[in-house]
Design goal:
This protein has about 110 residues and is α+β, with helices and mostly antiparallel strands. The protein has a single domain, classed as Glutaredoxin (3-Layer(aba) Sandwich), CATH 3.40.30.10. It contains 5 helices and 4 strands. Strand 3 and strand 4 form a beta hairpin. This is Glutaredoxin. Belongs to the glutaredoxin family. Monothiol subfamily.
């Protein structure tokens, strides 16, 4: 990944409490996994930002290297990589996601 792409990802992840790299947008997800993440965050009433990786090939590949995670969507909370759709569903179901987000938004 080139330094410019890394710097851009760094900035997105650190300036947004909850950042989702996904296929599509929060208003129009382009895959079921991205839609799952958007639905969970919307149900919790959490403000979050998204970046459509389909519109940016550099970010699409770079984010996989950045997190060392092969799939999209990718969710970051307070600058930390949380995971993708399956992990978010699991954290939501066991209540950990709500706690993590409350702490993040309070800081």
């Amino acid at each position: 990944m080139n330094p410019e792409t890394k710097a851009r990802i760094d900035q997105l992840v650190t300036t947004n409490k909850v950042m989702v790299f996904m296929k599509g947008t929060k208003l129009m997800p382009q895959c079921g996994f991205s839609n799952n993440v958007v639905q969970i965050l919307n149900m919790l009433g959490i403000p979050f930002e998204t970046l459509d990786v389909l519109a940016d090939a550099e970010i699409r590949q770079g984010i996989k290297e950045y997190s060392n995670w092969p799939t999209i969507p990718q969710v970051y909370v307070n600058g930390e990589f949380v995971g993708g759709s399956d992990i978010l569903i699991e954290l939501y179901q066991n209540g950990e996601l709500q706690e993590m987000l409350e702490v993040a938004l309070a800081s």
